[in-house]
Amino acid sequence: MQQEKAAAQTGQKTKHTKKTQTVHKNSNKKQLAAKTATATHTKKNSKKQLIAGTGTLNKQAVAAKHSPPHKTVAAKKRSSAHKQVVLRKKGHHRETMAPVYSGMESSLPDIERLVSSRSFMVMDARTGGTLLAKSPDDPHQPASTIKIVTAMIALKSLKLDDTINVSRRASEMPSSKIFLDPKQNYRANDLINAVLLASANDASVALAEKIAGSEDKFANLMTLNAKMWGAQNTVCRTASGLTSEGQHSTARDMANLFRYAMQHNEFSRRMREKTICTSYGKTLLNHNKALWRVGGAVGGKTGYTVAARQTYVGQFTRDGNTIVVAIMGSETMWADLKKLVDYGFSKKKQEQIAQLGPNSTAENIQKIN
Prior knowledge:
Helix content is 53%, strand content 14%. The strands form three sheets. It has a five-stranded antiparallel sheet with strand order 2-1-9-8-7, with helices on both faces. The protein has helices spanning 2-66, 69-90, 108-114, 147-157, 168-171, 188-196, 201-212, 215-228, 251-261, 265-271, 290-293, 333-356, 362-368; strands at residues 119-124, 130-134, 163-165, 185-187, 275-277, 283-285, 297-305, 309-318, 321-330. α4 packs across α7 (201-212) and α7 crosses α8 (215-228). The chain has one domain: Beta-lactamase, CATH 3.40.710.10. By secondary structure, the protein is an alpha+beta fold. It contains 13 helices and nine strands.
């Protein structure tokens, strides 16, 4: 009996063990099938991605091969323009240029684009402060603008009715000139007017020889006086401004010199005249066309040589403000001058409005405008 029970128990254990082994075997088969399915799926996805990536690369290569460079640049420009439009719509666009007088913009790069001058200076005549400048300390041949120094020395050194003898050398100076005759004598007043209005080279040399004995000695006197009058980087070699090696000035120096000279009554009175008649009956026409062309012009001196190109220095007054503008190395002098003068007065108005402060009334601003 006991043997039958033991045999039954042994048979049950054997059945249980076989059942457990079968369950484990089935579980392992399921896990292996799952792993195989996962690996197959991953492999298929990788293959698809590889095919897709290869296709994209092929498309890009074909597009790059057949698209000309200018289309790529154009596409970039269109993209940039689209971004700017989006920024404006979102309110992120900032205006970097402030509108000023006559529709001009206040930034220096725009002024440089609008004028041809190699260098210029726009100066507040009352304070001597800089309103706008481009390369104001670069040296250039001054041409006839340097005659303002010649005339100022003559006004300080001579009496208006002094007699001036004209040497043959002076009479043979090239144009511009008033064709002085070595056989005649002239009044100092007439020759000073000829220097300032008609830009006469012969009159300049005649005055120089009268005052210093020779043009070379007078040129040294010009350099010394120019430094005393605020022109620290000016060297004179001629009384006329005709091109000479070693002769140079700057836009800042010319502005300082003219600002100083216009404080001299005899000088400033002559600068305002459009025409002057000499004591011997010759009419002198002022070369400063700004008196006709630019609002507020009260005086100025022109110059031109091949080396210097067009040069100019002058003073202007509008609405109680006075500025001095000096131009060197210009190709379109009168157009440059008008733009710079307009800018200078616009800048003065902006400064005055700023001084009124945030509590300024519309009426006060209107008075300035």
